[in-house]
What does this fold into?
Amino acid sequence: MDRIGSSVSKNRYSIFSLARNAVSYHQNWSEAWRSPDPAPAYDVVVVGGGGHGLATAYYLAAEHDVGRIAVLEKGWIGGGNTGRNTTIVRSNYLWDESAHLYEKSLQLWEGLSQELNFNVMFSQRGVMNLGHTLQDMRDIYRRSNANRLNGIDSEILTPAEIKAKVPAMNVSGEARYPVLGASFQPRGGVARHDAVAWGFARAADSRGVDIIQNCEVTGIRRESGAVSGVETTRGFIGAGKVAVVVAGHASVLADMAELRFPVESHPLQALVSEPLKPVLDTVIMSNAVHGYVSQSDKGELVIGAGVDAYTGYGQRGSFSIIEGNVAAIVELFPIFSRVRMLRQWGGIVDVCPDACPIISKTPVQGLYFNCGWGTGGFKATPGSGWVFAHTVARDEAHPLNAAFELERFTTGALIDEHGAAGVAH
Amino acid sequence: MNMAQPESRTSAHLREAQMLRIECPWCGERDQEEFQYGGEAHIVRPESPDTLTDEQWADYLFNRANTKGIHAEQWCHAAGCRRWFNVLRDTVSYAILTVYRPGEQPPGNIE
Ligand SMILES: Cc1cc2nc3c(=O)[nH]c(=O)nc-3n(C[C@H](O)[C@H](O)[C@H](O)COP(=O)(O)OP(=O)(O)OC[C@H]3O[C@@H](n4cnc5c(N)ncnc54)[C@H](O)[C@@H]3O)c2cc1C
Ligand SMILES: [Zn+2]
It folds into this structure.
């Protein structure tokens, strides 16, 4: 373990390392993580190098004693939904089970840059969920009260209070769907998506995790009901345990172990504008008119759309979705109507019937799945990795994810979060 | 763009992805906007529900093939004749391979 300890201190980012590297014109920074060839076998193989997979590997290495760990990523780390999402972080979910899980995650976010020694640019600028109808407002009151009972910060704002915080928004009552109020979670916000993947990768690597990119898992080998390794595009890799965290490809991996999952993969799109001067310093979300927007530190408006109704693995969606989405944003912010859009893209989100994740053991001994985060798993990245690491290491769910096992679809104990998850991420 | 160039496979897929054009077996080809997606096709309601185990119920209600590749699915021409039908669609390129009426089986020769 000496090698690992010393690599941490050598590569530690600080004001001193910055000064030291300035002397050599920043030519001598070492790589943030190694790129080793895969070993013949590991104690735990994590499949999927998105934020959740990397966080799982990090917490396995940092908090559990499981031996050798590898993360296998078919493309590049963070190239999936982690690098394609609109980065909204909040914990104001309705039901106790999800509220506790997302709140654990939010608390981890609050110390994450320190913990990883990597600036994930977590910015607690608040998240506002708008209500446009009386029923919206009743739901908002109910959810906000439930949040407070769970110790989660939540306020209700009147249109005048919204206007004071967000002068650019049209709350005039003349809109087709007038803004009647909002819930506001001050501790919510946004983070830098790539930095989350890189930060977890670097911190996991420095604790000895092998991160292997361009390595696609093509089969899950089993011997008498227990997992024994994975077939990959870089050959067979033995594994005592296999933890699958592949988001939109969950069903594809489940199929490799002859399992059927209650998950469907849908395209979800987002777009960003040209950079603007600061105009919006919080996050605005609206289920009713179907849009959400924040402004990145670079000045771009980051706008999220809804899912396409059809299933799809193509990492792109229908134009009509974007059209409806942009119409909603312009309705809320008439001032944005002439802003030009720079980029538009899609990701593949894995949606469960109850809009809640699956973090679970499977009928195959040593095979674990973490999926079903759908449109809203970025905010859960640290918490998801933390509970999944526990589940994999101890072969048993943590109390925080006990309600999120596959079994709930057999027992019927679904956790209906469509209201809090909805379009809203 | 040189219009004389034959369209590449990728750009053909990209064009299709902008907006699906779906052929209703009764009304012909229309914009995706007129249709409603109805999920995986050919899921048969259990014949004797009271004899099913919880696992069998869960499989019927919740588990889905979620195929990456050619997927048999239901669509409804909601803003047209309001009739349901089946579609074989590639869930990677989104290309629609064929449509067929309710009660019919998918043609077996589609690759
Ligand atoms: C447009 C959009 C906007 C969103 N907005 C938000 C938001 O504002 N807030 C929020 O909380 N969530 C949001 N989400 C959801 C969020 O992005 C995801 O829930 C989350 O990032 C999932 O993380 P992950 O690590 O599980 O998945 P990913 O980052 O997708 O990682 C999975 C990885 O598995 C790899 N993989 C797949 N198959 C294999 C294989 N066979 N072998 C090896 N590797 C494989 C993939 O290449 C990928 O890198 C949004 C999603 C999208 C698409
Ligand atoms: Zn028709």
About this structure: Residues 124-188+265-351 of chain A form a domain with the D-Amino Acid Oxidase; Chain A, domain 2 fold (CATH 3.30.9.10). The first strand of chain A starts at residue 41 and ends at 47.
